[in-house]
């Protein structure tokens, strides 16, 4: 069992301010001791700056990294979707492995220690299954293992091209044909993973390492680096893509396994209108009826929820994942963060379309976008938005992480205070300063399961810009 000690100049231990001189002891990937006001002991790794719990990116589509910079010109959500489909048609498991590996490494450089990958690209063109029907899933697991970040693979059921419409074109690659075939494939993925992260008392989350995922033959080399842990969860792509009986089947699959369940919900007004017209219910109402709103469920976006929808989510204990930079980029709108927060709905955050990968920017947007929408300041505090970026995300993805406390996974992100953005920071205001002015570029150290993945701003895999260029160039349309 590896024991590593970190000494933090400042650390956020919860509450409204940071604590000076904090010693964090880790063993076997878990935090085993936290001491405030400690003298830096010999042998402890120094973490100058402000150390937060590792940031959690609860909603990602890794391949959308290939859309950044290429899809920002005028259009609609639906024209953006056509560009996304065009990219999806060009990917195979080997090219996706390289793109996801570099994208997950970019996340690690941004202080992200856990990602929830909402995964719907499953099959070869025309919808034909690969010899290994989870070839893409295994590529993502291997990519996260190499990049050193924890992964909850949210395997998405996707059966329809719209309400009462068959899948067409690129969507054929997303569909398993039926909820039963989806469950059979995902059960194979679960069986192919194995527990790798024992809990501190044997009762912690059972992660699985990306073993046996190396690609034999001519594909890119997939190093057998032990991953920080993988969990497989379920996703209902949306009410557009999954009919009600299949929603219920996916919800049952997740309930039987105690697995996280994610679903895109009410991102666009058109989705609400079509759902109401066909079923006489809002998307949230339809999900509730299918048994899909539970305490293990996270609704992604929730931009256009009615008051009744918000009550359904609050009553069920369902969380909501905001993706503010994507919701701006796609002209979705501003979701009801204040109302949900006041109703006790846990809010977490995602980089979604990867227009940027900066969880600190997403976190402050929770509050700043509310100011724009409501003409009132101070609805969510720095501690609230940082909790969304850490503990709430970990809860959504099924990990005992997101706090610097004994018994939590030893996942940390350190923000250096040397940049012009953070010059002049004082301990009393440090939490507000990092929540409202720090960026992904200020992250100096990222620690996952007690191990340094990023040190002094450098990823253990080396130059990630080069890796991203190499992965993206062959995918140019
Ligand atoms: Zn999404």
Describe the structure.
The chain is built from 15 helices and 18 strands. The longest helix has 17 residues, at 93-109. The relative contact order is 0.17. It has an eight-stranded mixed β-sheet. Strands 5-6-7-10-11-12-13-14 form an eight-stranded parallel β-sheet, with helices on both faces. The chain is 33% helix and 22% strand. It is an alpha/beta fold. A hairpin with a 2-residue loop joins β17 (451-455) and β18 (458-459). It has helices at residues 77-90, 93-109, 135-147, 179-191, 244-257, 269-279, 283-289, 307-316, 324-329, 337-342, 359-374, 382-388, 391-397, 430-437, 464-472; strands at residues 3-11, 19-27, 30-35, 45-53, 55-60, 112-119, 150-157, 194-197, 207-209, 230-236, 261-265, 297-301, 319-322, 347-349, 412-415, 443-448, 451-455, 458-459. α2 runs antiparallel to α15, α7 packs parallel to α8 and α11 (359-374) crosses α14 (430-437). The structure holds zinc ion. The site of zinc ion has 6 residues, from loops. Zinc ion binds next to loops.
Largest β sheet strand count, sense and barrel closure: 8 strands, mixed
Give the class from helix and strand content and strand pairing.
alpha/beta
Q: What are the distinct ligands in this entry? A: zinc ion
The separation of the N and C termini measures: 48 Å
Total beta-strand segments: 18
């Amino acid at each position: 069992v590896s024991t590593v000690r970190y000494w933090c100049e400042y650390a956020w231990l919860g509450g409204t301010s940071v604590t000076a001189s904090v010693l964090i002891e880790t063993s076997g990937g878990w935090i085993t001791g936290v001491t405030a006001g400690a003298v830096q002991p010999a042998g402890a790794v120094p973490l100058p700056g402000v150390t937060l719990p590792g940031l959690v990116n609860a909603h990602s589509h890794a391949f959308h990294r290939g859309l950044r910079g290429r899809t920002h010109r005028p259009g609609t959500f639906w024209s953006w979707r056509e560009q996304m489909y065009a990219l999806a048609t060009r990917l195979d498991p080997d090219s996706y492995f390289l793109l996801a590996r570099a994208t997950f490494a970019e996340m690690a450089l941004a202080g992200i220690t856990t990602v929830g990958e909402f995964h719907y690209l499953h099959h070869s063109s025309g919808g034909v299954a690969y010899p290994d029907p989870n070839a893409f899933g295994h590529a993502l697991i291997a990519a996260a293992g190499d990049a050193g970040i924890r992964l909850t693979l949210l395997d998405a059921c996707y059966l329809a091209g719209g309400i009462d419409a068959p899948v067409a074109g690129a969507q054929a690659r997303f569909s398993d044909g039926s909820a039963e075939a989806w469950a059979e494939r995902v059960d194979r993925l679960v069986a192919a993973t194995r527990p790798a992260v024992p809990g501190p008392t044997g009762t912690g989350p059972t992660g699985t390492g990306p073993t046996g995922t190396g690609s034999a033959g001519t594909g890119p080399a997939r190093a057998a680096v032990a991953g920080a842990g993988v969990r497989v969860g379920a996703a209902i792509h949306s009410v557009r893509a999954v009919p009600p009986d299949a929603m219920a089947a996916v919800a049952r699959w997740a309930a039987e396994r105690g697995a996280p369940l994610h679903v895109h919900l009410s991102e666009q007004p058109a989705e609400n209108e079509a759902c109401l017209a066909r079923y006489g219910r809002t998307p949230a109402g339809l999900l509730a009826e299918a048994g899909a709103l539970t305490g293990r469920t996270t609704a992604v976006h929730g931009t256009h929820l009615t008051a009744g929808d918000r009550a359904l989510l609050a009553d069920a204990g369902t969380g909501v994942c905001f993706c503010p930079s994507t919701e701006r980029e796609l002209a979705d709108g501003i979701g009801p963060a204040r109302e949900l927060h006041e109703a006790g709905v846990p809010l977490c955050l995602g980089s979604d379309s990867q227009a940027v990968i900066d969880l600190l920017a997403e976190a402050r947007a929770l509050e700043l976008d509310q100011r724009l929408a409501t003409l009132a300041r101070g609805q969510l505090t720095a501690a609230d938005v940082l909790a969304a970026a850490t503990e709430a995300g970990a809860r959504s993805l099924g990990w005992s992480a997101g706090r610097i406390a004994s018994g939590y996974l030893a996942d940390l992100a350190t923000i250096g205070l040397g940049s012009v953005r953070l010059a002049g920071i004082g301990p009393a205001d440090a939490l507000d300063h990092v929540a409202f002015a720090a960026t992904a570029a200020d992250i100096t150290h990222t620690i996952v399961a007690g191990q340094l993945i990023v040190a002094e701003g450098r990823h253990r895999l080396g130059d990630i810009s080069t890796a991203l260029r190499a992965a993206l160039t062959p995918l140019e349309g």
